[in-house]
Amino acid sequence: MPGIVVILGPTGVGKSALALALAERFDGEIVNADALQVYRGLDIGTAKPSRAERARVPHHLVDVLEPHQPFSAGAFARLARAALEDIDERGAQAFLVGGSGLYLRALLDGLHDMPPVADEIRRTLRKSLDEEGLPALREELEAVDPEAARRIEAADTQRTLRALEVARATGRPLTHWLRRRAAQGLSQRALRIGLTLQRSILYDQIAVRVRRMMEAGWPAEVERLLAEGVSPSSPAFQAIGYRQLVGYLKGTSSLDQAIEEIERATRRYAKRQMTWFRRMANVHWITESDPNDRVQRACDLMIADSEGPE
Known about the structure:
This protein is of the alpha/beta class.
């Protein structure tokens, strides 16, 4: 079997279901490559695997951080590499599953040599955020690193701050450092399987998924996290859905408005994900929508990869 099977694709396309089916069939273990499932307490809105699913198949990098803790592509790559080495030592098949393209690139193509940032710079930027607001910081980012400004969503406070931290600390834009490879990645060991659907079908699935999350108690989950002291400005709450529901709970929007904005933001995110993944090399795309057909196609790819060229 391949050293690592990577299952990637846009949000809501069915990556987790395919990974679970394959892991059960091939005595595998799943390594999470979703930027939000690492946070404890963020369960419904991240479509985190249930306790029953985690009992069926071992999962790694789920529930490893508190919502206030920052997380980066470099930190993910280090944790994921350790998990993959552990799985390999046990002789199990590793499945790397998620839609965070930057995290996958950091692991598969190598870590970036990111410079240190002084605490004083972080404190100064946080003060500017509190006093001047995010729009002022976005203006600065557009001036010093227009490429990062295009790539980072306008409402993404955490990544905006990170890009400015690096620019102020080094005098060079974050995109300069992202191009520098500091470590050999795992691409040669990885079989990349991508899931895709017609856009209209995917958007319908996203709408259904959001409604089911609401019915499962997503607003109550956010309310509980706020009651436990999680700050609305915490890294975890910058995620799509969580920030909209914080607004609803604070009375700045209705629930219907929050749901509409969550669906719209999720569709935009899925589109950006597909743009990213389409640029990724050596991805075997599965276009079938039937779960059984997907499993069979993925099995065929895994077997062919293990046999190598004739």
